[in-house]
Amino acid sequence: MIISILNQKGGVGKTTLAVNLARAFTRQGKKTLLVDTDDQGSATQWHVRANADLVDVACLATVTIEKDIQKYLSMYDYIFIDGIPRISPLTVMSVRMSNIVLIPVQPSPYDIWASEDIVRHAKDRQVITEGKLKVFFVVSRKITNTNLSKEVTNELDKLELPTFVNSTSQRVAYATSVEKGLTVLDGEFYGTEACKEIEKIAQELWEKIDGSD
Question: Could you say which of 15, 99, 109, 173 is the most buried, measured as most Cβ atoms within 10 Å of its Cβ?
């Protein structure tokens, strides 16, 4: 199964979500690969810092990704694609290959409006696949102890895609864990509020996967 984390806007927590969800699946004993398609190579740099111990990572930042990724489909049960922060042929191909697309958005109308292009591509693919492609928003980098405003909720509703119940918040642990070559599911970060957020999102994702079988 291929799960893409995509948004053409940078700074929405896309790589953070991809890395931590891939790690959550490996911790559950799932054969999982994280594919870094961003030419900045953030996930790959984290992988090096982690001494390649936590998650298998492949850098496929090329338009041959659909062909290249085929060799991994027999080796892994789950492939997470960390998308690039723009609409490009790579983005379109990632949507086309995916079983599930997660669109991280910050709780701001501006960020939600900026996601409209990727939403359109994903919806077009849903039509082609007769609904087999599942697409969800995941709210990212919420400010703790606040609720989503009615305005933001209304903007998400306008795009007519379901939103995960669980979300990530602005927490120092996400950045600090990367610096140490870890995720929020590892070492001193395990059991923190950030860890609990990722575990809940991973569980919700697993339920979506299970429901699509």
Answer: 15
User: Could you tell me the fold of the domain covering 2-207?
Assistant: Rossmann fold (3.40.50)
| Distance of alpha carbon 43 from alpha carbon 99, whole angstroms | 21
Query: What's this model's pTM, rounded to 2 decimal places?
Result: 0.93
3-state DSSP call for residue 136? strand
Which DSSP category does 143 fall into? P
Alpha carbon of residue 1 to chain centroid: 14
- CA torsion sign for 113, 209, 207, 14 is negative
The SS3 assignment for 211 reads helix
Six-digit token string for 136: 């969800």
Phi, psi of 5, rounded to the nearest 5 degrees? -110, 110
**Separate counts of helices (H) and strands (E) for the chain:** 10, 6
Residue type, 147: N
CB 76 within 8 Å of CB 3:
no
